[in-house]
From TrEMBL:
<feature type="binding site">
    <location>
        <position position="93"/>
    </location>
    <ligand>
        <name>AMP</name>
    </ligand>
</feature>
<feature type="region of interest" description="NMP">
    <location>
        <begin position="30"/>
        <end position="59"/>
    </location>
</feature>
<comment type="subunit">
    <text>Monomer.</text>
</comment>
<keyword id="KW-0418">Kinase</keyword>
<keyword id="KW-0545">Nucleotide biosynthesis</keyword>
<feature type="binding site">
    <location>
        <begin position="57"/>
        <end position="59"/>
    </location>
    <ligand>
        <name>AMP</name>
    </ligand>
</feature>
<dbReference type="Pfam" id="PF00406">
    <property type="entry name" value="ADK"/>
</dbReference>
<dbReference type="InterPro" id="IPR027417">
    <property type="entry name" value="P-loop_NTPase"/>
</dbReference>
<dbReference type="InterPro" id="IPR000850">
    <property type="entry name" value="Adenylat/UMP-CMP_kin"/>
</dbReference>
<keyword id="KW-0547">Nucleotide-binding</keyword>
<protein>
    <recommendedName>
        <fullName>Adenylate kinase</fullName>
        <ecNumber>2.7.4.3</ecNumber>
    </recommendedName>
</protein>
<feature type="binding site">
    <location>
        <position position="36"/>
    </location>
    <ligand>
        <name>AMP</name>
    </ligand>
</feature>
<feature type="binding site">
    <location>
        <position position="196"/>
    </location>
    <ligand>
        <name>ATP</name>
    </ligand>
</feature>
<comment type="similarity">
    <text>Belongs to the adenylate kinase family.</text>
</comment>
<dbReference type="GO" id="GO:0044209">
    <property type="term" value="P:AMP salvage"/>
</dbReference>
<feature type="binding site">
    <location>
        <position position="31"/>
    </location>
    <ligand>
        <name>AMP</name>
    </ligand>
</feature>
<dbReference type="GO" id="GO:0005737">
    <property type="term" value="C:cytoplasm"/>
</dbReference>
Amino acid sequence: MNLLIMGLPGAGKGTQAAKIVDKFHVAHISTGDMFRAAMANQTEMGVLAKSYIDKGELVPDEVTNGIVKERLAQDDIKAHGFLLDGYPRTIEQAHALDETLASLGIELEGVINIQVDPASLLERLSGRIIHKETGETFHKVFNPPAGDYNEEDYYQREDDKPETVKRRLDVNIAQGEPIIEHYRAKGLVHDIEGNQEIDTVFADIEKVLTKLQ
């Protein structure tokens, strides 16, 4: 099976990706792993990517697309299929992926789209607080400190502040919607309700993938 998994930050994509790989034995291709492997193996695109990263610059799309193509051309993909996680991030990358798959003679069979209400993701992602003295991490809603704690004893990282999280979600929604619609038009998207217990979410995914096998 050749699959994509999509979902907003905090939707549980990473957890479900690991379960899919474990159950269906497809190759898990995450953007970060791909870049690290390409640079470690000094592939043509890996060397090029490193030259940008070393200068503190963003890696251009054509290099990212090239690294994806190198990875999808490897033997384990032909044997077991893949689950692509974290790519494509833009509609331009989605079009590039279409071209890559066509050139390799690979057919995309499904897009798992984990849907969670952005408001609940905002609560989930912006609730982390850290104790100033001990560095211990808590969550205001899901794992609060014991008793009536004093908020002044805790701080939030910039990344965890509601306004930062909301900006990140807004950017992801704006980038992700055209990609979902692109694949929806091809009849590939399977929407999964992500606001459930982890095992229930996976049971829903499993039903979809069993039919695709």
